[in-house]
DNA sequence: ACTAAGTTATTGCAAATGCAATGAATAATC
DNA sequence: GATTATTCATTGCATTTGCAATAACTTAGT
């Protein structure tokens, strides 16, 4: 029965290989593109929240975000009330590139499930949603 | 519809965090435990095959296998016919530890799908198997 | 048989990773 | 209100990672 956990791991690693290769030219390899996508869709998360939302180590996430700020994709803002927090937003360059990231993710996703009927795709979506915590 | 690809990535990253933490004490962090499990179950793969079977970069896989040979978990053997190939087998220490690795994988898998009925688990297994070409 | 193309393991190197530790700010407890 | 515990961002450091390149070997094509 642990084919499930193995298959899921295999799909993730394969997908990451392809996506990192695709976005290296934009300086968004090493899963960096994920941060831009998530930040665009949910602006204002603080660093730890963003890290947790993508299940990546906080220190790794911190450094990736720094890099993305330096390269103009993201932007940080101190929280007004809680002085510990630094909230993350997309900068211009991040907003500009989002459509392309989004399109590629959709393309990858479509290809992944292309062997399934529409009904099976719906089933799979529902089953997986029950697994994430 | 790309919740599928996101959920799958989230599950993998979370599972890896937990498994690496669990097996660090054995020197099997950084996904090293995967190599021992797969080699035990399918002995005699050559290095590239093993790497491909777990969707991990060949150079990374090569170095991990080297480390596992040094630490006594795996063993390499030159192929008799094709002088390029080095085939991988578990060493004693690898065989000894396999039951524990296997049990943890089963435990993780069971916990992952614990929110699903038996029928849903079967469905999910079948759907995922269609995704991994 | 010879050459070209493809495959393998392996190494170099720069960059990424992640555990552990720190200091600052907030929340909880007494 | 003082103290303790928790949470946040950040840095240090050793290890890991993976792209690119190389050499040895095998296969395919002529």
UniProtKB/TrEMBL annotation, chains A, B:
It comes from the Bacteria. Residues 1-133 form the HTH marR-type domain. Keywords: DNA-binding, Transcription, Transcription regulation. The keyword Kinase does not apply. InterPro entries: HTH_MarR-typ, WH-like_DNA-bd_sf, WH_DNA-bd_sf. The keyword Transcription regulation applies. One of its GO terms (molecular function) is DNA-binding transcription factor activity. PROSITE patterns: HTH_MARR_2. PANTHER family: MARR FAMILY REGULATORY PROTEIN, TRANSCRIPTIONAL REGULATOR, MARR. This is MarR family transcriptional regulator. It comes from Secundilactobacillus silagei JCM 19001.
């Amino acid at each position: 029965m642990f084919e499930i956990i193995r298959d899921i791991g295999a799909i993730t690693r394969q997908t990451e290989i392809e996506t990192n290769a695709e976005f290296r030219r934009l300086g968004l390899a090493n899963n960096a593109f994920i941060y831009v996508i998530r930040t665009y869709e949910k602006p204002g998360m603080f660093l730890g929240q963003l890290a947790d939302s993508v299940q990546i180590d906080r220190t790794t996430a911190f450094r990736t975000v720094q890099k993305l700020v330096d390269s103009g994709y993201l932007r940080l803002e101190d929280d007004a009330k809680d002085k510990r927090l630094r909230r993350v937003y997309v900068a211009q360059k991040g907003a500009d590139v989002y459509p392309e990231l989004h399109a590629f993710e959709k393309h990858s996703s479509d290809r992944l499930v292309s062997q399934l009927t529409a009904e099976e795709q719906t089933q799979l979506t529902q089953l997986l949603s029950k697994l994430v915590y």
